[in-house]
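ugh ok fine here u go
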Amino acid sequence: MSLSTVFLPEELVAEVLSFLPVKSLLQLRCVSKSWKSLISDPIFVKRHLKRSACNLNLTLVSYFFVEDEAAFCLMENPPIIVRRFYDPYHQLKDKDCNSIIGSCNGLICLLDLSYFDGHKEMCLRFWNPATRTISEKVGYSIEHNYQYYPNLTFGYDDSTDTYKVVYFISDTTQVRVLSLGHNVWRNIQNSPHDHDYRMNVVHLSSSFVWLANHNYISEKIVIISFDLGTETHTQLLPPKGFEEVSFIRPNLFVLKDCLCFSHDFNKTHFVLWQMKEFGVEDSWTQFLKISYRNNLQIDDPFNKFRHNLLPLCLLEKNDTLLLTDAYQLQIILYNWRDNRVKRINQSWWFHFKNYVESLVWYR
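structure:
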């Protein structure tokens, strides 16, 4: 009996390959010219990214102003955090940058910031650790606002297939944008409110979102959304169940592709809301109301401001919420189904960013 060659349709080959990790795909590019072309094709890159994003369970962790970088993986049954990336390439040293601005679709935005007498100079690099590619320095800028660390955010606009870095200048309403590929800062429409140097900006649905005070008299909180495609601002209201500014400042973050809002309630509970439909204020839904003492086993939640909990990751399939404290010195794993708590103490201040491996590169 003779053996015959079996040919698989290209679409089926692409489907199978899209399940593989980046390292394997980089090796398979050497199989043939057609496979190299397929794996490099932008359509395949997006298909692979979509599959990888469905299994997002990595949190990028870096020291602040320290030449080190590592990633931790949230595992299951029970959830634990383990170190990854022993490869020296996955460290910030030798990248000629000193901090991480953000991570989006497998690309990491790095900042090189230098202080001089009366001004600071900054520029950016873009790095894909999985494919071992890194850009030249771009977006060189001299800033005379010496007081504050630059508030930069990195994201992706799917309407134009463009990666952008947005610079919210502290204590002003000024906004600048750098689009990858053009690499020149542009001044655009001002924000409706001044930018607090402490503002935490999150990325969701081609938008950057953050909290702002409506005015300094009533201290009412509003949510500002900046559309990366139109480069315009929209104001949203927080959940109706949150009527006044609590003892501590509330937080915005993204969990499972939902905009989330958290706040303290009566100094006894941590409350978590989800906006089920982004941009629709009536879609706010209370997701969790967790007792500091009974659930999180925190007897004195206001000691050293550690009560200002910051959610990092949500694993609904095993009912687990990953949180950190205000100083990001402790990781809390809370299972609301079994009411179990696990703590992991850290000896340094960490900076958390979601990360997923990809083949993405910008043109």
